[in-house]
Write a structure and sequence with these properties.
It is globular and about 50 Å long. Helices cover about 30% and strands about 30% of the residues. The protein is built from seven helices and 15 strands. The chain has a seven-stranded antiparallel sheet with strand order 1-11-7-15-5-4-2. Strands 3, 6, 9, 10, 12 and 13 form a six-stranded antiparallel sheet that branches. Strands 8-14 form a two-stranded antiparallel ribbon. It has about 250 residues and is of the alpha+beta class. Helix 3 crosses helix 6.
């Protein structure tokens, strides 16, 4: 049965022409059924290169994390500071209202007490009122031998259930290995892993943590984690767009 959403997608994309080219009903259906969906060419190659180059501009970021120091894997990433770069802010603001219908659909099925507001600035206000005031969009840089352990990007009580990762480098040209990996932890079942193939400029929207899956006795909660396999050669850059801020 097709996914029935409370808010018409056409209303959300009316003023978002670059994103309107996607088949949103089909992509939201895939997100609901599989926990992820690929958005081919969500950034052009020029934008990818500009963002990757930005990694060395320290003033654009609020902090840097060396993964090995925390047991997160190997490699490093930097969180942007406010104000965000224009293209990062645009992606965050324009994608959010397109994903809200599915986020609220999941919240209802999971019997969560709170639904998400229609616009991103309203949700960010809720984050800040809850003490989550630090921006979470980030750039990740991997070299040979680097990888990212399976994890969830949770930074406080306010959590938007979907996020975006955009590959800024070209597989087999800029790097080898380094596949994007998702795992599902299902009740009373073994975990399932999926490898998501991306090209430069492709984005993948996926569940941050929990999502509902329909079973024989109604919906049950599936926990999802994501990571990156070992980069065997070259250098790999990724943009991460997380819609909630951090405490």
């Amino acid at each position: 049965m097709p996914l029935q959403l409370a808010m018409p997608v056409d209303e959300a994309i009316a003023t978002v022409s670059p994103l309107a080219r996607y088949d949103w009903p089909a992509l939201l259906q895939q997100l609901d059924e599989r926990g992820f969906a690929v958005f081919p060419g969500i950034l052009d190659h020029f934008s990818c290169d500009a963002l990757a180059t930005l990694y060395t501009h320290e003033t654009a970021f609020r902090s840097q994390v060396i993964m090995a120091r925390h047991g997160f894997g190997q490699g490093e990433y930097r969180y942007f500071s406010y104000p965000l770069p224009a293209i990062v802010q645009q992606l965050r603001q324009q994608l959010y209202p397109l994903l809200v219908p599915l986020a609220n659909h999941w919240a209802t099925r999971l019997r969560l007490p709170q639904l998400f507001p229609a616009e991103h600035h309203q949700f960010i206000r809720q984050c800040h009122q809850a003490g989550q005031c630090r921006p979470t969009p980030l750039l990740l840089r991997y070299g040979q031998g680097d990888y990212n352990c399976l994890h969830q990007d949770l930074y406080g009580e306010q959590v938007f259930p979907l996020q975006l990762a955009v590959l800024l480098s070209e597989p087999e040209e800029d790097f080898q290995g380094g596949e994007f990996v998702l795992t599902e932890q299902r009740p009373r079942m073994q975990s399932r892993a999926q490898v998501v193939r991306l090209n430069k400029g492709d984005g993948v929207v996926f569940a941050v943590s929990a999502r509902p899956v329909k079973g024989s006795r109604g919906d049950y909660r599936v926990l999802q984690r994501h990571g990156v396999s070992e980069v065997t050669a070259g250098r790999r850059f990724t943009l991460g767009i997380i819609f909630h801020d951090a405490a």
